[in-house]
Amino acid sequence: MSSCPRVAYFCMEYGLDPSFPIYAGGLGILAGDHMKSVGDLHIPLVGIGLFWDEGYTRQLIGAGGVIEDHYPKTPRDALRRLDVKIEVTVRGKKVPVRAYKVDRHISSTLYLLEPDRDEDRWITQRLYGGGVEDRLAQEIVLGVGGVRLLQALGEPIDVYHFNEGHAVFAGLELLRQHAFGGNTLPERIARLRPHVVFTTHTPVPAGNEVHDLELMRKMDADLGFTDAELEMIGGDPFSMTVAGLRLSRLANGVAALHGETARDMWKDIDNAAPIIAITNGVHTPTWQDARIRAALVPDKPRERQDAELWAAHQAMKQELIVEVERRTGAHLSLDGLVVGFARRAAAYKRADLILGDDKALKHLFDLGIQLVYSGKAHPRDLAGKSLVGRLVDATRKYPGKIIFLENYDMKLGALLTRGADIWLNNPRRPLEASGTSGMKAAMNGVPNLSILDGWWPEGCEHGVTGWKIGDPDPSDDPFDEKDEARVDRRDREILQRVIEREVLPAFHDRRTWTSIMRASIAMSQWQFSSDRMIEDYVSKVYSFAE
Ligand SMILES: *Cc1c(COP(=O)(O)O)cnc(C)c1O
């Protein structure tokens, strides 16, 4: 790991700690884990992000099931203000920007930017808040401001890593500066590309941000590009993902399957970087309970390891039961199978799949199944909110059998991925790019029960490390609504069958279950750790091939 070039990593959100909510979900947790492993492994990488004054929504379920979004101020005690000021231009107006270093939660270097004057603070008021103009203003501060900050601090950078298209303005700023030489725009791009790498995260076309060139002009960041030049970089309308692919030397998806999906999705884009796959991972010291590691230290006889592993799991399950009771008043049984499901309330993740057949569901309840959900909807995502509403309704219909925990955050993520018995994941394939909650579960001995999507084809050995829900059917079309109903029905039936015929018999046999727990931990411990992920980024992405 010694010959790593100096890297600047750009991301809109970072999930470092529950007490520092400048993250919304998976992307931020991934970036947080990236920064933590970089610190542990002493990789010369600095992170660039934004300080979100009100973070992301604290989402509560009010009386009568009304979903309420609250925006408490983000605590500033983890920040140290730097003695440096830079300037960006938004809507043709100068915006002075200050910078902080994050002094807690990580040992690596993370700089966060914030407009210096109150009148400009709308830009970073809320993570993913506001409309497209706010988003562009945020991206200008992140990208243009980030590059200028690194220069003001005298940080030498060999490679710029754009984590998601949000960071593409960093590339535009480097081009404006002729940072790596070249005269014409194609020459400047060719000189820049060896220094940029790009990670794409979403196989849902709507999740890839595009902006009208007219709006780009209106948001005037004073970078001096003509419409034709912008079009050469990102197309018309300007796609942040296309720009990322054209400004980088190498791009990657976040799991092997997602790499294939992304290659297919962007195959018609000319001048795009090749897309490889680096599968995500999670920070083991953050997400794996220390009792799991203690149970499995190698110098103990196997029976003792098994007994301690089981005892650790029961203790963590009991902690979940206590917290569920404290938060909802509902009492879960320690004996029945607890199925965990916690995700962003996006339609493709199908949180309510298993709820779709009442009769089959009641049968599962008779067999002792208990479902524990958590999730947040984006404040302006009405479909997501109605999904949360359906889950909350289900808790009223089946009290004590279905639980919904409000305000999904890192704390609940940790509680659920160690306290559940199995971790359910049933997205519409291939729309889950990676998914990392299942990795957290796996390394706590909570086996996955999942569609073969995202990372799971790489971790699943059916009946050994967990279970798959059916096999991929190449005829499935995730965007055909008529097809959706058929696919949902089929997947629901398979899911119910696997639970009843395979998961439950294993669960009721302690020896079988502990061996599955062990296999789940052994499979994930290294392969789905962010340390492995960082080693892959260093050797396959950051290092210069020349
Ligand atoms: C791990 C985590 C995620 C990402 O999980 P997915 O499986 O990708 O949905 C999102 N939010 C929180 C709070 C998490 O802890």
Describe this structure in words.
With 546 residues, the chain is an alpha/beta fold. It folds into two domains: 7-282 and 532-544, Rossmann fold (3-Layer(aba) Sandwich), CATH 3.40.50.2000; 284-528, 3-Layer(aba) Sandwich (Rossmann fold). Helix content is 41%, strand content 17%. It has 19 helices and 21 strands. The protein has a nine-stranded mixed β-sheet, with helices on both faces. It has a six-stranded parallel β-sheet with strand order 18-17-16-19-20-21, sandwiched between helices. Helix 1 (26-40) packs across helix 19 (530-542), helix 2 (132-153) packs across helix 3 (168-176) and helix 11 (302-328) packs across helix 14 (410-419). Bound molecules: pyridoxal-5'-phosphate. Pyridoxal-5'-phosphate is lined by residues 25-26, 29, 343-344, 408-410, 413, 435-438, 440.
Question: In total, how many beta strands?
Answer: 21
The CATH homologous superfamily of the largest domain: Glycogen Phosphorylase B
Shape estimate? globular
Radius of gyration: 23 Å
- The amount of helix comes to 40-55%
CATH topology descriptor of the largest domain:
Rossmann fold
What's the average pLDDT?
A: 96
**Largest sheet: number of strands, sense, barrel closure:** 9 strands, mixed
Which hetero ligands occur in this complex? pyridoxal-5'-phosphate
- What is the CATH first-level class name of the largest domain? Alpha Beta
Q: Structural class, judged by helices and strands? A: alpha/beta
Strand order in the sheet with the most strands: 7-8-9-4-1-10-11-14-15
The poorly predicted ranges are none
The CATH architecture classification of the largest domain is 3-Layer(aba) Sandwich
In angstroms, what separates the terminal alpha carbons?
A: 17 Å
